[in-house]
Amino acid sequence: MALLFVLPAVLLLLSLTIYPLIRTLALSVVQLELSVSPNEKFVGLTNFIKVLTGDSRFWNAMGNTAVLVVVGVAIQLVLGMTLALMAQQMGRGRTIWVTLFLIPIMIAPVVSGFQFRVIFNDTFGPLNYIIEKLTNGVIQPPAWTANPDTSLLTIMMTDVWQWAPFMMLLILAGLESISPELLEAAKVDGANAWQLFWRIKLPLLMSVIIIGLLIRMMDTFKTFDLVVLLTNGGPGDSSETIAYYTYLNGFQFFSMGYTAAMAFIQLIVIIIISRVFLSIQKRQRGADE
Amino acid sequence: MKSNRTTLRIVIGLFLTVALVFFLFPVLWMFLTSFKTQDQIFASPPVIIPPRDQWNLDNYIGALTGSGGLQAVRDSLIVSISTALISVGVGSLAAYSLARYRLGGDQFSFWILSTRMFPPVASAIPLFLIFRQLKWIDTYWALILCNTIFNLPFAIWLLKGFIEDLPVELEESALIDGTSVFGAFWRITLPLISPGLVTALLFTFVFTWNEFMFALLMTRRAVRPLTVMIQSLAGGHEILWAQIAASGVIAIIPGILLVIFLQRYIVRGLTMGALKY
Fold this sequence. Notes:
- The complex is a heterodimer.
- Chain A is mostly helical.
- Chain A has a single domain (28-288), classed as MetI-like fold.
- Chain A is built from twelve helices and two strands.
- Chain B has one domain (57-270): MetI-like (MetI-like fold), CATH 1.10.3720.
- In chain B, helix 4 crosses helix 10 (194-210), helix 4 (69-101) packs across helix 12 (226-234) and helix 5 (105-114) packs antiparallel against helix 7 (140-164).
- The longest helix of chain B is centred in the first third of the chain and has 33 residues, at 69-101.
- The two termini of chain B are 32 Å apart.
- At the A-B interface, helix 1, helix 3, helix 4, helix 5 and helix 7 of A face helix 1, helix 4, helix 6, helix 7 and helix 9 of B.
């Protein structure tokens, strides 16, 4: 009976994940240029070697993605932590604060990308207008999305805007589950606010932070929508993420075999990241007990 | 001491207000933009609040009728509602057997979870090739199935947590009274986890509503969800900023409603039940 219950889900997931996985693996060792011909030609590991050793644009996209995953998510964590610590001081009224802060989380990335394209626009966007007014025209703000030095930054800022509130929410929930007696006892023993944070709150928040980081890093690794809406990967390839570059290869250049190899490499990266996190979490759990 | 505390609160309140302005400004700006004329958008200094007589729904009507917006809303609704129903329907059954019979143990549960971590772009290529063979590209089914891959594991994990919170004795006593396993599930478990079902339905709905990559890759002309419409309008030659802003406002309504009405379960939802605050 239990088997019967789980059967529909397993069949769906098998057909929609395992089969594509096998198909991807099979594709990754052939050459299939759909724009040229529908015929597959076996090429062995050539695709993998070409991606890893001969494709500088792949490594550029990986680097850009790493910046978003490491720097962007770190900013989200610090900002979220600061906001959570502040919101906790607001007493009963904090529910309303939190609700307002949560609004960005559930907005479609396509829409947040559009919002920031308007804001960053160099001819009529409000951001550059404000910068010029505040500095009396001394600072000439850049054309954010059209400048190779700032294009990746616009994607990062939009992602931070959307997801720092998520970190805030998680950490606030974690803070509220710390027993007040524990903090009271530490205060009686003479701990100041600084010590309370570093010695008591932060260690107790670690498991929440790890889950938050895992979720955010996984999702940021897949960043695609924001790239399409804000910069299309440009100018040049200055803001291409790995998901976007994979999309270009598969659905603009139609090199299916090559794209499959690239997709498989990403899958391995994702698995490594999640394994690292799960082992950290396990050790953390051991330390908590 | 008391006044110290009040001062602290006022200072922190000020900081939070500044932060809140930063986090709400983009949404507010889009909202204001949706009432502007094309001239006002390009005006310098910028028009912040459009004049009073201009607060009408022209841009909204334009967005819905002019560029296939109404069809886009309909397509998004069909795909999101179907995905939510399939994910929660199939997911609740699976969650029950995982929670109550520990079917396949932790490894099996984790396999289900890990399917959600797949980079969508990696599964997009084989799925695209399969759907092309089946001639399903540009149909609702292709989109519903793609979205189900990522929402089904979510629904299973979320509901599994809700079922594990219930005391197993309720079902056991029903089973002793002669109810079938399915009867116990249907008449006892499901009603008791209704908050979980609502949470799972609304989250899967909004996730699908907001989804963009599959919507872009698996559709052409016959099906065109809202996110694809917004992207294609924003990527065109003559960009009708105000109308896109109006479509954007329409597109964020379900998400904002979810945040307001489901706040109690939002941490649980966003972490797939990993955190039960």
